[in-house]
Design a protein that fits this description.
The protein is mainly alpha-helical. The chain has 20 helices and no strands.
Length: 441
């Protein structure tokens, strides 16, 4: 069901929409990130190996989060996007509640799969919706503000989860956090309007279309947009490193410095929230400002961040004190989250409106599936090193450090993306979609 609502180019309401969608993103992140802290208690309670824990923190969630992103995006291209977000939010929140009722590895794995299924429809749809409230040059900052939800959720989720688990138990933490999303979902549907797709684009007169093109047409256009192709590859490798290195930080800190689950939740929350918040805002501001003069900065900024990530993670897992580990942890998370605003903005600006949700879902599919492999690979490596005689601290350290060296590949892909951006921004998009709106109205 297409919307005819054309948003104003100024005014408070569009920022209200960014706030609400950011809040949804925060709750989504909380329900996803709670495993980073609760995995310590869950492993002890359910007697799990590091490999099983890697499956729960990675593949269990990403299996549906990645694979269902594309079909849900194809639906979102044709229906009311606000309604889609509200339904998905209620679904993943309900599965978070059910995670607290799991009695074994298998039942918890299935519940986390359900969380991934619900959340798969949120990010691509929300990003597409926000993009249609802003002109191209304002999108990076608007999407960076939206991405603050990731940082807020990354800060609040572990902190709340750790505190709740410390006083009440990990099961109760899942139930409490999931209930919040169930209550908010109907309010999102009531107070947010779905804008007309592409109405504020500079070339809207030639790119607005009545019907979204088929998936094969979308793939054809994506293939002949090399900057998008390299962006997806870069995001996938970056997610692999991020999932492997950061996904195991909480167990590493717990084993290395022997801190309680409540303290661990606060520390991980400060890392993910503080570092991520600064990374998102800095990146959104820089690419919005520098990208107006030279679009290559959309990819050069994350390329520079990738170069910094490698030594930062090595130090994060090697320094002898908790304070130093936190310092390098903030640097790592800052650089890890730098890639988000330019990636989202490029996906929404390089392609015609009817392809944006699908394009965002492909990016999401790549990053989530690759990101899911990260914790599993590090967990397998850790178990293998323990069999070879390393203790459980050293095994995690060397396995995580080995993973971060792949960030060099992500940096190269970001540079290749930058090399193609000027030509892709200048490309005529008028023939990318189907018949003009005027034909169907």
């Amino acid at each position: 069901m297409a919307s005819n609502y054309v948003p104003a180019k100024s005014g408070a309401y569009r920022w209200f929409v960014v706030f609400v969608m950011g809040l949804v993103f925060a709750i989504m992140t909380i329900d996803r990130q709670v495993m980073q802290v609760l995995q310590v208690a869950i492993q002890h309670d359910l007697h799990l190996t590091d490999t099983e824990l890697g499956l729960l923190t990675g593949l269990a969630y990403a299996l549906f989060y990645g694979t269902m992103a594309l079909p849900l995006a194809r639906i979102a291209e044709r229906v009311n996007r606000v309604g889609m977000v509200a339904v998905c939010m209620a679904a993943w929140s309900a599965m978070t509640v059910l995670s607290g009722m799991a009695s074994s590895f298998v039942t918890l794995f299935l519940a986390r799969m359900g969380v991934g299924f619900g959340e798969a429809g949120c990010y691509p749809t929300s990003a597409s919706l926000i993009a249609d409230y802003f002109e191209k040059h304002r999108r990076p900052f608007a999407l960076a503000l939206y991405a603050i939800g990731l940082s807020v959720g990354g800060m609040a989720g572990p902190a709340f989860a750790g505190t709740l688990a410390y006083y009440y138990g990990w099961r109760e933490a899942f139930v409490f956090l999931g209930a919040g999303g169930i209550l908010l979902a109907p309010l999102v549907f009531l107070f947010v309007r779905d804008p007309k797709r592409g109405a504020l684009d500079e070339d809207s007169a030639v790119t607005l279309r009545a019907k979204p093109p088929g998936i094969f047409r979308c793939l054809q256009v994506y293939w002949r947009t090399p900057s998008y192709f390299y962006l997806v590859l870069a995001g996938g490798v970056h997610a692999l490193v991020q999932g492997g290195a950061q996904g195991w930080l909480a167990p590493y800190l717990s084993r290395r410095f022997h801190i309680s689950i409540a303290e661990l939740g606060l520390l991980i929350g400060l890392l993910l929230g503080g570092g991520g918040l600064l990374g998102n805002l800095t990146s959104g501001y820089l690419v919005g400002r520098l990208g107006r003069a030279d679009p290559r900065w959309y990819a050069l900024v994350p390329a520079i961040a990738s170069a910094i990530i490698i030594p930062a993670v090595i130090f994060e897992f090697s320094v002898p004190s908790l304070s130093l580990a936190m310092v390098f942890g903030v640097i790592t998370v800052f650089c890890m989250l730098v890639f988000a605003p330019p990636t989202v903005a490029l996906t929404q600006s390089l392609l015609v409106p009817q392809m944006r949700t699908t394009a965002a879902s492909i990016t999401l599919m790549m990053t989530s599936l690759m990101g899911a492999l990260g914790p599993l690979i590090v967990g397998l490596g850790s178990d293998r090193l323990m069999h070879l005689g390393f203790d459980n601290v050293e095994s995690l350290r060397y396995s995580a450090i080995g993973m971060v060296l792949l960030e060099a590949v992500a940096m190269i892909m970001f540079l290749r993306c930058a090399a193609n951006l000027s030509a892709d921004f200048a490309r005529d998009r008028s023939g990318d979609a189907g018949l003009p709106d005027a034909v169907s109205e």
